[in-house]
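Dissemination and training. As part of the outreach component of the grant, students in the summer workshop were shown how a complex can be specified as a set of sequence lines and then modelled as a single object. The example used during the hands-on session is reproduced here so that future cohorts can follow it. Participants entered these lines:
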Amino acid sequence: MADTVNFDLNGHLYTKYMYQNDNTQGCLSISNPFWVDNIQGHNGACTEFELNIKARVSDKVSAGVRLQSRWGAIWQDWWENGDLKPGVQDTSGESLGMNHAEYIKLRGAFVRLAPPIPTVNWVTIGSTDFSMWNEWTIGKARYIDRDNGDGVFVEGTALPNRMLNYTVGAMALPKLWAGPGWQTGLKDNDPLAALYGTDWAFAAKLESRPTRDLRLKLIGTLVKDWEADRNSPFLTGPAMASRGADHSVSLATRFRGINATLDGVYAPATSDWFQVSGLFAASSNYVNPDYATNLVRNGQGFSPVLFKTDCPESGCTPQDLLNGLGNPVSSNDFAGTLLFEFFDPFRSGFSAKVQLFDIGSEYNAIMGARREADVLITDGIIAGGFTRGGQLPTLNIANEFQDWDEPWYESCIGWRGATAILEYVNGPFKGTLEGTYIGYNTNTGVDAQGKPVQRDVFNQYPNFLYTNGFTDTTAYTADADYANVYDRGKDPRSVYAQYQDRHTAIAVLTAQYLIPGLKGTPTLNFKGKYINDYDGRRQDVLTDDYHGYEYLGMASLSLQPTNELKVTGGYEYSYWQESARDGSEQAGFYGSKTVRNTAHLGLTYAFGGALFNYTLEYFNKYLRRDPHAYYDMEWNVWRAKGSFEVGW
Amino acid sequence: MRSPLRRVLLAALLAGCATAAPGPSGAPSATAAATAAPASAPSSSGGIACTANGGFTFPDPAGDDNGPGTYTYPTDAVYKPGSFDITEFQVEPKGDTVEFRVSVNSRIEDPWDSPAWGGNGFSVQMVFIHIDTGHKAGAVFDGLPGTNVRFAEPGWDRAVIISPQGRIRVNSEIDQKCPQWKDRIIVPTVTRASGRTLTAVVNTSDLGGPPQASWGYQVLMQSNEGFPGKTDLLTRKVNEFEGQHRFGGGTDYDNDPHVMDIIVPPGGDPVQKQHEILSKYNKAATTDVKPADLAVLPMVYPCAK
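and obtained this result:
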């Protein structure tokens, strides 16, 4: 009995069903197109099992593990056992890779202890989701990776009464995404790098509440990716002492990222209707091109880091190279946000928020939050009606391993502007009105002679190939670039362009209203959105000016006819009119118009601890493009997603 | 302003009722009732503002978000200081509906993205509002599953749950964990967060009628736990030592109240009162915890005359 008191087991079964009127199979809309064993597809039912075991070893020590089956097999897979044999014709029916084998994996393990060390409260060894830092430095891991991060963390109290608390940590650098080329040393991906076991991220946080009304937090992080020094004597010839080959190998920096933030919240107790919060951030990133393949140059502009040199932003001229320029240097910048909040100050139901933001053009957090977080209060450009979105200060956004109904995230590097949101609440009614203006620190401008300045997107600044146009996130079909195959709107990670003279205005109106006096708590939801996005590109050329207008309206009704059942039905209309969206400076630009109608039905049913969700959607989209260069496209898509889960 | 003598006399009379009158089955023991803080003497002072239609605004001191005085927050960054610190409790009748508002000492945030799971725009807070709608027979003296408290006479007959979880989930949990009180527990038609205030809109008919000045209330501040224990109604446990997602400063058993903040009858030092109330539980009862081992919470009558 005593053993079971200290032992906590819980399990969770999750099954997902997907349908679409296409010829794909799988249970994940966007997976990894690079994999031979790609699990992406829209038709199938898949199940996963999770088992958590937590134990209280003593009053000062606890431990836990999470076991979870691998996701990727569909019910029809039957015998699949990870028997992939690339290049071999195999008709056994059990020839897919380990992603279809449903093996149980140790996803996380941790021990947490309270050692008798002065000022130390807790030491954690093992898995965490990195949520102790923030989006601007090292961000919380996305939900599917919540236990993938491992490290050693120490939390302590330096001064009592919340005057000064600290957290320090050393984290194993994820080899698959936290560096140039989205890896930290995979020779199959980058022949110049093969070492990742030596790579770590370090972080420290200080928190203080010097007064009752003020909270301060200081975070500093360092990401270090080392590789074997290729010039190390032990690696370059016989192990002769005379050569200096001493059976040791020195390390060279492949990538170094430094991020720091200072944020504060002032909430005067005497005026509980008011709060102001501010954040100041700095970043410095250095890439060593001797060990990291320049994907700006060799990867069509798809790179999560800049390859900055001491040449101008416009790139190295032949004369610059003759003068000895072209050497790698750090890219450094700052960022800041300031948020004023007024919580119903006049007890009238009206509240307001005003946020100022200024994010430097070269600010970047390679390990910042990649999704499932949002640093700005604006709805942004990427959010739709049924689909939500957020803004993050990193080039390492991860809109992948997700389904068509999940939120999308866009990089806000270079954004400079303000958002004002007015909110009104009165009983069953809530409404909000947002106005946002975005200027861009990434605009290229003109020189002293009025000649447009260009940004070097061929060698230094990654533009992710697609730099303009609204992005249809729900009809996204990822190809090998993780870029939309058919509707080439802006890549959400693209913040740099060769020529940019851009500004954006956004207006959003939302309302929720519980209709009184009717059974089933009927609730109306409405959203209207308008975006005016202008990019003059080259300021000496008028025919390349991009101008995008987005009009969106969404309405839905939800009902709860019983305690267990909730149903929702809705409709969304969106219209995009975009001039000079597609093309190039050399070949010319062409406009497009997009009309999209979406009908959406949802159902949620909970019974006896089981939860069932089902969503059915139909959308018709027509993309009309300039016939001189492109053909029109139409979508008539039916799709459904259902899930069933039980936990115990 | 009522005289101190009159307040003491009223308290003594109420204590006498609790010890002498046979309570409904399940009422706390006479000893527990007598030592629990007496129900509030009627008052229109001390920051309480009552309206003619049964509504009121009831302040709670800041900085008492520590249960019996020893509780600490989980260590994860989402649990911002003040998140579980009640600063004001407000009831506003509006004809066919009644709004319950609970304000805390921190801006209410949504770090777990509640819209993704059908939630109500906030993540970490969970509030239980117990209501005595007029000393009705058959009142309940037990706390809801996971709170580890009991209630003094006259108990409660309605409870409003302010949860970030959607109504479907809350109703499902009620069905599983406390179906015997299903008809007494009200899941609001609207639950929302704005600024530092949680708002719940309930139908007046679900309360059995509009609020009266004679009604009593008790507000329990807890934390939303999306993966609760088998016997917890979406509540977060308190352990001896805090964890990333566990409160600390209590015990590792179910004898300590899993409540961070409550309201107390006006008069005296409210923080000290809360600490006294929540610390009176049987610390030796680590296994086979019985109702009599639990802390007993008083109902508060802000506007009773």
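Chain A has a mean pLDDT of 92. Students were then asked to discuss how this feature might be tested experimentally.
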